[in-house]
């Protein structure tokens, strides 16, 4: 009887332990699922091309850690008058970049308070034409290099100059990525304009050829009518 009771007690403890372990794993997995995959990266750069329908507004959200540098730029590639509204809200919901109807715009927050930024593209003033918009976003944590430096200093290595150099290189790389994004925006816009002009010229040329052919046919028809001789025969009685 005592042996059976010990077995039941052991099975009960094992069941409780396994249940607690499974709940702990689920809790950790849920917390990791809520965190963006790029949260622990020192720098993230994203480039999107989105289509905004006529009379619509689309908003996109980007998570930024506290102390990181947030940068976003947009450029209208094609569609309508080539302009759209652009606005940015900080994690507190305040509009830090008011709406302006323009072809290109950008915004930078050197020290972010942390949270989700909202980037909105407004095409409500264009009632008939959709817009193709290029959005470029970077999130850079310059203090991440200080963290790496502290870890290296624990190994009794003097890496101050190395850390400063790496930070400078990282800032220069971020600036170059921004310039490259602007260059890609201009290239995409020029290429779209080139395709539109080519299509317009082809359509206009074909229509002119058709008009000329129709005009020549009508002229030939009426000129032949002018020189047409009608023969009449009179019968004698």
UniProtKB/TrEMBL annotation:
<dbReference type="InterPro" id="IPR009038">
    <property type="entry name" value="GOLD_dom"/>
</dbReference>
<keyword id="KW-0217">Developmental protein</keyword>
<dbReference type="Pfam" id="PF01105">
    <property type="entry name" value="EMP24_GP25L"/>
</dbReference>
<dbReference type="InterPro" id="IPR036598">
    <property type="entry name" value="GOLD_dom_sf"/>
</dbReference>
<feature type="domain" description="GOLD">
    <location>
        <begin position="57"/>
        <end position="139"/>
    </location>
</feature>
<comment type="similarity">
    <text>Belongs to the EMP24/GP25L family.</text>
</comment>
<feature type="signal peptide">
    <location>
        <begin position="1"/>
        <end position="30"/>
    </location>
</feature>
<dbReference type="InterPro" id="IPR015720">
    <property type="entry name" value="Emp24-like"/>
</dbReference>
<protein>
    <recommendedName>
        <fullName>GOLD domain-containing protein</fullName>
    </recommendedName>
</protein>
<keyword id="KW-0732">Signal</keyword>
<keyword id="KW-0472">Membrane</keyword>
<keyword id="KW-0812">Transmembrane</keyword>
<dbReference type="GO" id="GO:0012505">
    <property type="term" value="C:endomembrane system"/>
</dbReference>
<dbReference type="GO" id="GO:0016020">
    <property type="term" value="C:membrane"/>
</dbReference>
<keyword id="KW-1133">Transmembrane helix</keyword>
<feature type="transmembrane region" description="Helical">
    <location>
        <begin position="206"/>
        <end position="227"/>
    </location>
</feature>
């Amino acid at each position: 009887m005592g042996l059976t009771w010990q077995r039941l007690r052991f099975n009960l403890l094992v069941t409780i332990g396994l249940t607690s372990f499974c709940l702990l794993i689920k809790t950790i997995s849920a917390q990791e699922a809520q965190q963006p995959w790029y949260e622990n990266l020192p720098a993230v750069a994203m480039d999107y091309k989105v289509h905004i329908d006529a009379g619509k507004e689309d908003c996109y959200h980007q998570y930024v850690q506290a102390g990181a540098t947030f940068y976003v730029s947009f450029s209208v590639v094609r569609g309508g008058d080539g302009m759209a509204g652009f606005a940015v809200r900080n994690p507190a919901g305040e509009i830090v970049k008011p709406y302006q109807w323009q072809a290109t715009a950008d915004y930078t927050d050197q020290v972010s308070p942390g949270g989700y930024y909202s980037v909105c593209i407004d095409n409500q003033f264009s009632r008939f034409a959709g817009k193709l918009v290029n959005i470029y976003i970077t999130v850079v944590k310059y203090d991440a290099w200080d963290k790496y430096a502290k870890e290296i200093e624990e190994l009794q290595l003097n890496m101050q100059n190395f850390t400063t150099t790496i930070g400078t290189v990282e800032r220069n790389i971020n600036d170059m990525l921004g310039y490259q994004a602007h260059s890609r925006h201009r290239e995409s816009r020029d290429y779209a304009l080139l395709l539109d002009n080519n299509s317009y010229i082809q359509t206009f040329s074909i229509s002119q050829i058709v008009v000329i052919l129709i005009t020549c046919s009508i002229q030939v028809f009426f000129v032949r009518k002018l020189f047409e001789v009608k023969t009449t025969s009179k019968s004698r009685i």
